[in-house]
Amino acid sequence: MSIEENDKEKNADPGSDSTRTPADSAEAKPTRPLTPCVPEKTEAPAGAEGSAGDMSSEEPGPDGITNEAEEVRKAIEAVKDEVGKVIIGQRKVIDLMLAALLTDGHVLMEGVPGIAKTLTSKLLSKCLDIDFSRIQFTPDLMPTDIIGTSIFDMKRSEFYFKKGPIFSNVVLIDEINRAPAKTQAALMEVMEEQQVTTDGITYPMKAPFFVVATQNPVEQEGTYKLPEAQLDRFMYKLEIDYPSAAEEEEMLDRFKEDFYGKSEQTVRPVLNSEQILRFRKYTEGVYIKDDLVKYIAGIVALTRNNSDLYLGASPRASLSILKSAKALALMSGRIYVTPDDVKASAYPVLNHRLMLSYDREIEGVTVREIIEGLLKKIEIPR
Question: Residue 74: how many CB atoms within 10 A of its CB?
Answer without folding.
Answer: 12
